[in-house]
Design a protein that fits this description.
- The chain is an alpha+beta fold.
- It has a domain of 110 residues: Aminopeptidase.
- The protein is built from 6 helices and 10 strands; from the N terminus they run αββαββααβββαβαββ.
- Strands 1, 2, 3, 4, 5, 6, 7, 8, 9 and 10 form a 10-stranded mixed sheet that branches.
- A hairpin with a 3-residue loop joins strand 5 and strand 6.
- It is globular, with a radius of gyration of 18 Å.
- The two termini are 19 Å apart.
Length: 196
C-alpha cells in the first residue's frame, strides 16, 4: 500500500486503523494489519429512556475553559492508548454533522460526554467520569442526557462502543438498556519496519 510506504517514509513506526466493522477489516488484514484491540458495539433503540436518580450535580454545555479539566478526567479514566488529546477531542466533536459537548459539575467538573447525530442516528462518541467519583450515578446521568438529546432530535437509535476489557462501561450501558450488536468493532495495527 502506498499509504503505508508514505507513513514509513515520514518516520512513523506504527499505523493504526480507526474502529472498523467486520466487513471493513479485510483490506487491512490483506495489507498486513493485525488485531490491536476488540471493541463492543452497543445500540439503544430509544424506546425507553431510563430516569436517573436525583443528584446534587448539574449537566451543562461544555465551554472552551472546560476542555482542559475534561481532558484531565479523560486521562485518569482511560488507559494511555485510549486517552484523548485536545485534537482528538475536537475530532470527536466534529465527527458528525451535529454534536454537543456537555459537562457534569458539582464544585468541579466530574465528567463529560460528547454526543453527535447524523440523520436519524445518534452516537455517544465519548463518555468519561473522574475515577475518584465512580459509583455515584454520574455516568448514568451523562448517558441519559445523551439519550434524551438524540431523542429530542428524532433519532431512532444511538450507538456507543467500548473496549472489551472495560467491564465497568459495558455494565453501565447494558443496565441502561443498550443491546450488544452481533459483531463488534476492531482496531488493527501494522508495525512499520524503518528503512535500513
Amino acid at each position: 500500500m502506498r499509504a503505508l510506504e508514505e507513513v514509513r517514509r515520514r518516520g512513523y513506526r506504527t499505523a493504526l486503523t480507526p474502529a472498523l466493522a467486520a466487513e471493513e477489516q479485510q483490506p487491512f488484514a490483506t495489507a498486513g494489519f493485525d488485531l490491536h484491540e476488540r471493541l463492543h458495539l452497543l445500540r439503544h433503540d430509544l424506546t425507553r429512556i431510563p430516569t436517573p436518580a436525583r443528584a446534587d450535580t448539574t449537566i451543562r454545555r461544555g465551554r472552551r475553559r472546560d476542555i482542559t479539566p475534561a481532558l484531565r478526567i479523560d486521562a485518569a479514566a482511560f488507559e494511555p492508548f485510549w486517552r484523548l488529546t485536545p485534537e482528538a477531542l475536537t475530532e470527536a466533536r466534529m465527527a458528525t454533522p451535529r454534536a454537543r459537548f456537555r459537562v457534569l459539575t458539582a464544585t468541579d467538573i466530574l465528567g463529560y460526554h460528547v454526543t453527535g447525530l447524523a440523520e436519524s442516528t445518534g452516537y455517544l462518541q465519548r463518555l468519561a467520569v473522574d475515577p475518584a467519583h465512580f459509583g455515584r450515578g454520574h455516568g448514568t446521568r451523562l448517558v441519559v442526557d445523551a439519550l434524551r438529546w438524540v431523542t429530542r432530535h428524532r433519532c431512532t437509535q444511538l450507538f456507543v462502543n467500548t473496549q472489551e476489557t472495560n467491564e465497568r462501561a459495558l455494565a453501565l450501558y447494558l443496565h441502561l438498556g443498550f443491546q450488544l450488536e452481533p459483531s463488534g468493532l476492531a482496531v488493527l495495527r501494522h508495525d512499520l519496519v524503518p528503512d535500513a
